[in-house]
Amino acid sequence: MSTAAVKCSIPEYLNEDLIRNTLIKEFHSNDIVVEEFDVSPATSAGDNYMSDVFRIPVKFRLSPTEKKIEHISFVVKCLPDTGNRGSVIDELNAFHKEAQMFTEVLPKLSKIAGDEFFAAKCFDATAAPNRMLIFHDLKSLGYTMANRQAGLDFDHCAAIMTKIGKLHAASMAFSRENKDLMNKYFNFNMFNPNEDLRTECINVVFEKGLGTLISIIEENWHDFDPVILAKMKELQPVYVKKLEACLTQKFEDGFKVLNHGDLWCNNMLFKYEPKSQKLEDVVFVDYQLSYYSSPGVDINYALSNCPNLETRDRVNDLIDIYYKSLSETLKSINYPWIPTMADVQHEIRRMEFFSLVSVVSILPITMMEKTDTMEVNFENMIDEKQAEQARKIQYNGKQYQAIVKPLLKHFHEKHLLDV
Hints:
This is CHK domain-containing protein. This protein has 15 helices and 11 strands.
């Protein structure tokens, strides 16, 4: 007899029928017997925003006569089609992008790159009657999330850059034969060209976020350069437009890859050798913003959001690691053209404004210090009053200020704050 944890927040459709049908599809047998399962939230508050994620460990037998009990653990990602989240998911085409990535694209990228492990196996992706994706639970394979508040050390960041290089290289080969798929599903990131009326989510998260940071600097950052502050004030009215111009720019020079599109700490899991705890691997999750564009999207985003304070002094070393991974993977698959380091640096500069936006608007969420007065979730992020309250906590964080003050000076020197 099957059992499940009863919690009001758990959807009714996460039931025995769903589990049995998933097992039937995976093992190609109608004789599957589900013995026991449990459903529980797979993430903590602040670890996931647009979706609801549940973990389902299952005990089952391959047939009624089979005595051996098998074990498997699923993670089910549910993407609502109602409320604010539903609207944003529709605008971003997030479900269909991610479904394509996991069912069609990532398995082929893995094969191209010599069976590189880019993502969890996806057992099913369905839009009706409910939007959800069913994955193999990476936790059951020994993968775990890092501490997002602390930031990542050099070894973790090096593993990320190595994996991005392999992913990008494989996507270059894949995209040559699949231009139609790239153009259909992966032609935009946050700014859907088919949407005339956009939700206020982008403005609240980005423009209003910059406004709150400006006010916090005026109130509390007493040693901050007034010239840089003045530049930030001039930038605010056109901040979102400049972000859109950066992410949607058309270019024929340089090169394009299929970017993950949202590489912050919560979208990556790490595996360690059990005895020594030496880092062995990193794998990415949440491919819902994947985007065929400049590799500068992923490089700038990851290097802005992931490193701890000490590792930020070694950004050039991390770029070298990315380039080595990219070029060696391309050589191993006999790709006809290998970008130079100068080509990579050009793409980083092309998308550098995204680095500024990441530091101002994404990094504070990553580093937000725990508080009893504020729960970070999607609704709070897009509600102006709640978002402003969260930002005040984020921008006053000591770790955040230690990282961001010198970065804002750097962005000023590189003219990224210029209107």
